Batch of 2 targets.
Target 1
Amino acid sequence: MSLITRTSRGLALAMAVFMLIGCGRASQDDDAPIRPTVYNLGDPVNDPDIAAVVSSEYGADTLTTEFFLRQYNLILERLPQIGADPGQQEELRRNIVEEFVRRHVVFGVADQEGIQSDSLEVADQMDRLRAQFGSEDEFQDALAANEITEDSLRASIAEDLRQQAVLMHFASSVAAPSDLDIERFRREQAEEIQAQHILFLTQPGLSADERDDIRSRAEAVRDSARQGVDFAELAQRHSDDGSAARGGDLGYFRRGMMVPEFEDAAFALSDSGDVTRDLVETQYGYHIIRLTGRRTGEVMDTSLARQGLEMQRRQREVQNRVQTLTEGAELRVNPEVVQAEINHDV
């Protein structure tokens, strides 16, 4: 499987971060792609009982080491394959801290705006959970096995619904797309391209020298590709992606199927055989892309296009709002506990 598809990392599913954040891709007439979050880091935390502290205009919150490790071990238990990959382990530790910061700012807005969860909806979700068990005794046994009470479960549901309400509040400010926007979106979604690529993987935590060395090797291969050396052979020899065995071939894909930086560079290529002039940097590393085909697929139904474009714009608004709030906070991390590079710029 290729590393650049949007669904390639199951870690985001395990984290269950936000209902509206993640999969969508705004149309090309929207704002520039979301930039990676670079955290405002304060002095390191030295208390072994504390994993991280975040402070903002909404006050301060503490992530205890006990809670951090509980979350980490719970996800490893559910997704044991992460335990065999040091890179994914670091990503998991980073995601727990980043989710802690996001929740701090989102609930800060909830307090400021007076946004609460709907008690009827909380009760409805409790009833639906209870109905999944054959009897009340089975339900109570499940609670006991997970070391939670009905009150704590109800509070957790209320907290999740309150978070969703804030995100919906952010999304509600987005204007409906015009007929012209929808027609442009339909045409864009029907466009498909075929491409090859070569990936030079950059794992989290690399030193500046290690990253520079990878970039230098990628630039040398890119120069060879642009000079006409067989791209498939270069991919088989150098690519760290799962597509290497196929000569880097990714088949045909539409907008929204690849990570944004890769997608933008690939669709910007004009003619079959064109190779990207510059390296394309994504969260996975450095890519060299070669366009091999272009075609028009099935045009989306207008009503579906309207729904898709509205959802993408709401997702983009939520991402922007949460990111702006997050970048305004100060994060202090205990490096001995977290063991992950937080202030990343990939």
Target 2
Amino acid sequence: MTTAQGQVCGGATQFNITAGKPNAALLTGDLGVFAEDEWKVSSNFTLDLGVRIESQSAIPDHFDPAPRVGFAWAVGQKAKKPPIVTLRAGAGIFYDRFVSTNILTAIRQNGVTESSYYVANPDFYPTIPTTASLSVAPPTIYQISPRLRSEYEIDEGISIDRDLWNKGSVSFNYMMAQGEHQFDSINTNAPLPGTYVPATATTAASGTYPLGTTQAIYQFQSGGTLRKERFFVRVNANPTKKLFLFAFYTIRKQDQDTAGATSFPSNSYYIHQDYGTSPYPHERLYLGTYYQLPFGINVSAFLSSTASTPFNITTGTDLNGDTIYNDRPAFATNPTSSSILYNTKYGDFDANPQPGEKIIPINYGKGPAFAELDFSLGKAFKFGPRDPVPAPPPGAPAPKGPLPKPDPRYSLTFGLDAQNVFNEVNAGPPVGVLTSPQFGHSISLNSPYGGSSSANRVIMLRTFFNF
């Protein structure tokens, strides 16, 4: 039995190199036909029915029908009485396209146009080998599955909206989606389960391969599933002409067994082994305000906050010979002399799972939460001639009262923007590879909304001239 604390040093566990002709041509197209009709069943109830039919070339699936239905009911609305609430609901099927970059990958890396080679536990560093020296092994190739289908979601939602006495509105929303045929990638020539034994200092790797060779064949497939539920509340308020407030809170539960077309499962023969929580925060909160100060000075503030973000914990090794380094450890409940144990703040793990030990769920780790306050201040100076007031069109009734003057032709705006006003340190997702000496530590900043990833607090001065 080996005990490790994450301070494992040494060389790379995998080396890959791709060479050949990178140029490739692709001609593909999408077709979508949509029809919709709306019926006003009564003065306060409308019904919408629609259907969309999609098709895409360059993949086996060419017919994707997507019906949709929805309604809106203004409860209690009468001729001179606004509705108590407005109830909306709908359901439909929504497809995603298989992007051209994945098709190009299958064209390029077919083993002829370009060749990719993977070497486990390379010992030739710092000398980089050539593809000619590696060509004794069959190259890794990419394919598109002949059974690939366009991924889709069956979405259902309901909302209740309420006007706040002409000073704002509040909206409650619930949405549910079931995703089928979600895109993923599989090594179709991975060793059969239970047959692969990783190489050691005295033995070579072993395994039974379906095609009789060790060649890795990566195939784009559509065998994933997804389920998500989301509830959110939105509030907008204009208590005065100069003050605007808004709030948005959402809670989401999302489970899936694929992270997209280029993601691989940890078990090529049982993708559902990776079904579990997604790597997204379960809760988010946004608060904002805008206020116009005297002398035309505008000030705004925006607070964003998210709960902790799940992240995946992996062994840093290839335990099943599929050439993908995303295997997860097991809970160390039945260690033996061949176990590799890690004692971490997330639990005790066995990086060489033994019989009877349960593999940890995907995205088992919990990363840091996020909170940031942004602030903005601005003032616009308008000057220059004013354009003449346009004459009303012929036959239009004469306006009542004086017309508002057009704005001057030029404006010069000065402003200040501050991101993360309180200099809160928002750490990025921790390193999840057990063999890394930085396991469990965040080595980057979290910047989910496009801010700077290299600075914690950023203050910018800006000026605009419009003409």
